[in-house]
Design brief:
Length: 103
């Protein structure tokens, strides 16, 4: 197995923002690096503020059971603060916004 992370494209609907990231950092952090703001609070999978729906693609968690019910997981909900991409992704998060350019 390669230790070099792959690059994946993430698209956030309905706005259509896209960014490229590796499987080495959580989606929330990757979005912030790409100047995309996803709602968040705790950043450790407990508060559920960042919960959104995965429309396509595969993610993994480094914890056994993130703060989602089995029904939420079955319905495609994920926690981007602790979700690592394993493929190109499309997520649904109407609350996503662009971060102001730093300068």
């Amino acid at each position: 197995m390669s230790l070099v992370p792959d690059e994946f494209t993430v698209r956030i609907e309905p706005k259509g923002s896209t960014f490229v990231t590796s499987g080495a950092i959580p989606l929330l952090e990757a979005a912030r690096h790409a100047a995309v703001n996803l709602p968040s609070s705790c950043r450790n999978g407990t508060c559920r503020t960042c919960m959104c729906r995965l429309l396509s693609g595969q993610i993994r968690y480094q914890i056994e059971w993130p703060g989602l019910s089995s029904d939420e997981k079955k319905d495609g909900y994920i926690l981007p603060c602790i979700a690592y991409p394993q493929s190109d992704l499309v997520i649904e998060e109407p609350r996503a916004s662009d971060l102001p350019a730093s300068g």
